[in-house]
Amino acid sequence: MGGHSLAETSQLPINYDVVKDVSQTCSACHGLRYLDRAQGYDTSEEWSHLITSMVSLPRPRLLAISEYLATQYPHKPNKAPRLITGDTDIVIDEWVTPTLGQRTRDPIEAPDGSIWWTGMWASLVGRLDPRTGEMREYPLPSSARPHSIVPDDNGFIWYTGNSNSTIGRLDPTNGQIREYTTQARDPHTAVFHPNGNLYFTSQHSNMLGRLDPSSGKITEIETRRKPYGIKVGNGGDLFIAFNGTNAIGRMTPQTLDISYYVVPDERTRIRRLDIDSKGDVWFVNSSLGKIGKLEIATGAVTQWDSPSGPLSHPYSMTVIDDIVWYNESGMRPDALVRFDPTTEKFQSWAVPSGIGIIRHTWKTREGDLLIHQSSSNRVGRVRIGN
């Protein structure tokens, strides 16, 4: 299969067991269930292209594993997204990050225009110069496993230590790190407020927190199940997505008092949200395959079905010039979707390397969208046209 010579694969030991090798190689980084859930590929070349973005293998083993996977896990057309054509043009640039298997995710733009990402499984953060393609990675404490990052105005990069109960600050000029210990065991997503404080969610600890960088003081409160994404609203209050209940939270930054907006249907689970120019909240209803808008003034919720249906699992969410951008993470390839609230029309594109799930997106100062593919170690930039 795939036109490879017998000589290449014959370099393997006579007693080589490809099934055992696949099991051990793949399970070293993720569960084998992901093979069943993947879109699959019909050729060994396609599987080889994917594998080399995850792990480095000797060529004979790579060929043997790729040929086995092409036979056992061919393409599944039922996982293909329903793509909608439209008038908007985009260009997607992608870069493969240096350390394989790091689970590249959650890119952001720093004040100097550089793009940063977190390599959660390798406990690192990385910097990309999008003009030159030059990349550099900064090691963090090995137990940190940073979930997300956020820049401050002084050039520091702050990360959430999802596995060691810390909020960390990296100084890119010298690589020095300062850690702040949290009560919550798993800081998740963070955002800076105009008041200078850092606010963060801790999903499995069911907590929200505030860090004062000037004093290092951390204040944390308990909240409803699985707080996930967090954004600063136009009036200064913070809005929180909940991945464990059908609600959106609203927190006062000074007192940390929190109230809740109920989103219809108890099955609703929300991962990410963002704010439009009117101050209303847009969100992904991940569990039901919808996107929605919460009108802050009235509490009214309006929802729309995502093009690929109830199993599309919308995940990320960024509003750019009142246009809603998100992805359908349940599809293969991962689909990037544009929704115009004025016309209520969708448009969507297949992400070129869309097998790794966009988990978080970021608006750049030029109005581009930063994306990533966590499974294949890619960070991307979507240049938006008309």
From TrEMBL:
Matches recorded under Gene3D superfamilies: Cytochrome c-like domain, YVTN repeat-like/Quinoprotein amine dehydrogenase
Pfam families in UniProt: Vgb_lyase (PF24684)
SUPFAM superfamilies tied to this protein: NHL repeat (SSF101898)
PANTHER family associated with the record: VIRGINIAMYCIN B LYASE
Descriptive protein name: Cytochrome C
Source organism per UniProt: Candidatus Paraluminiphilus aquimaris
